[in-house]
Amino acid sequence: MRVCVYGASSSQIDESYLIAGEKLGRAIARKGWDMVFGGGALGLMGAAARGMTAGGGTIIGVVPTFLNVDGILYEHCKEMIYTSTMRERKQRMEELSDAFVITPGGIGTLDEFFEILTLRQLGRHGKPIGILNTNGYYDSMLAMLRHCAEESFLRSSVVEELAVSDKPEELLALLEERLDQGPQLNKDLG
Fold first, then answer.
1. Residues 35, 138: Cα–Cα separation, whole Å
2. Are 72 and 40 in contact (CB under 8 A)?
3. Burial of 56 per CB tally in 10 Å (0-12, 13-18, 19+)
4. Residue 124, number of CB atoms within 10 A of its CB
5. Does 71 score more than 60 pLDDT?
6. pLDDT in tens, 9-19
7. Of 3, 41, 85, 133, which has the fewest Cβ atoms less than 10 A away?
């Protein structure tokens, strides 16, 4: 099983987010799963990777060539895949992964989350999506998604299928349950 982890590359965030990211990496490694991520050494990406390394897990980084700069990339990846663009990076990460975890992040993380959520809604994949909601970071986004569903701009099943927890171990258990249920692709695109 390979889980893709999306998250902040910023190191200017509260330490509680970094601690949660490292715990997530350790929890993934304990399950014996591999991690696919954006290849960064900093922020939540780096924290999750350090947790994976500490837990003996296997890490695959996917990074556009323009980010191949000293000090930016995590050096303990089993494999580093280079792409030409950010779009190719996201596609390659999706192809390599069996499930997705979104950790707190900025515009890049939100872009990755909404793309993978859109692809699921359109029936392009049936892979489970989890949100690590550290410090309630995504509470307002989840409220917005529920509001979208209430106003019929989004099917409620899209929101209900998300696995959400502030505890890494619990989040991975929820993802595993959804994985065991198999793909429940949304056929109704309206």
1. 22
2. yes
3. exposed
4. 12
5. yes
6. 998 999 999 99
7. 85
Q: What is the largest CA-CA distance in the chain?
A: 47
Name the token pair of 186: 């949304």
- Average pLDDT of span 36-65: 96
Structure-token pair, residue 126: 């049936």
User: Is the entire prediction scored with pTM above 0.85?
Assistant: yes
pLDDT of residue 67: 82
Q: Which of 84, 76, 182 minimizes the C-alpha distance to 127?
A: 182
Q: What is the DSSP string of the chain?
A: -EEEEE----SSS-HHHHHHHHHHHHHHHHTT-EEEE--BSSHHHHHHHHHHHHTT--EEEEEEGGG--TTTB-TT-SEEEEESSHHHHHHHHHHH-SEEEEPS--HHHHHHHHHHHHHHHTTS----EEEE-GGGTTHHHHHHHHHHHHTTSS-HHHHHT-EEESSHHHHHHHHHHHHHT---------
